[in-house]
Amino acid sequence: MRAIAILCTLFTAAHLQAADYTFTGFARDLDNGELLYVETHEIHAPGTLDERRIVTYRGNETAEPFARKTLSYGADRAQPSFQFSDSRSGFAESVSRGPGGFEVRFRGGPAAPARIAIIPPDEVAVIDAGFDEFVRAHWDALGRGEPVLAPFLVPSRLEAVRFRLHKLRATSIDGAAATVIRLSLAGPLGWLLPDIDVTYRDADRRLMRYLGLTNIRDQHGELISARIDFPDPR
């Protein structure tokens, strides 16, 4: 009976872990704090090989979506397949895993032709939102102040670009201890592009804030820089 009880407890815990949930991010202008857009994340079968995420982007919480991203996770959670399209700018990109590597597609506007490339799997460590999983997997090393290098697949360049991650500082958000991780381009390109700072709550390593370039473009086709806050859905 005790064994059955333990199995039931484990089954219940696994079932609860796989329960679907939703959370929201609020992107604001870096200078004046004006709301730029809202992104809603729907997580299905979290933590499993069947995990699927749907992200919708709106001008505000009640507006119609102008962009959408879907992600599919598998055995390597740092390398999800994904598709993204923005109806306002015509910008679209996707990454899918195939037998020869990662097929990358990118379109820079509604009239622009699609560009396609196959990237060998050994050249890629991180894809899109898989960055969160990569940070969690290297949390202890980052916490000790050790820098971590990661080839990050950038669809607009049709290649993987080496980034350097390191712990920037300790902080707190909503009274909870948190850690700021800085993402910088490694090598000479690091002088040309701004850093990205991401803040994770220490207790559960949940993303609480993102600061830097986003994947949303303005009316001129330029990527928007923003501060995105992810309040605890509870």
Rounded to an integer in angstroms, the radius of gyration calculated over CA atoms is: 19 Å
SSE ordering:
HEEEEEEEEEHHEEEEEE
Number of DSSP-assigned strands: 15
Overall helicity: 10-25%
End-to-end distance: 35 Å
Strand content: over 45%
Query: Uncertain segments of ≥5 residues (pLDDT<50)?
Result: 1-16
What kind of sheet is the major sheet?
15 strands, mixed
Number of separate structural domains: 1
Output mean pLDDT.
Answer: 90
Please give a structural write-up.
- This protein has 234 residues and is mainly β.
- The chain has helices at 2-17, 130-137, 139-143; strands spanning 21-28, 35-44, 52-58, 65-72, 81-86, 92-98, 101-107, 115-119, 126-127, 148-154, 159-173, 176-185, 196-201, 207-217, 223-229.
- The protein has 3 helices and 15 strands.
- It has one domain (19-229).
- The protein starts with a helix and ends in a 5-residue tail after the last strand.
- A hairpin with a 5-residue loop joins β14 (207-217) and β15 (223-229).
- 12% of the residues lie in helices and 50% in strands.
- A 15-stranded mixed sheet has the order 8-7-6-5-4-3-2-1-15-14-13-12-11-10-9.
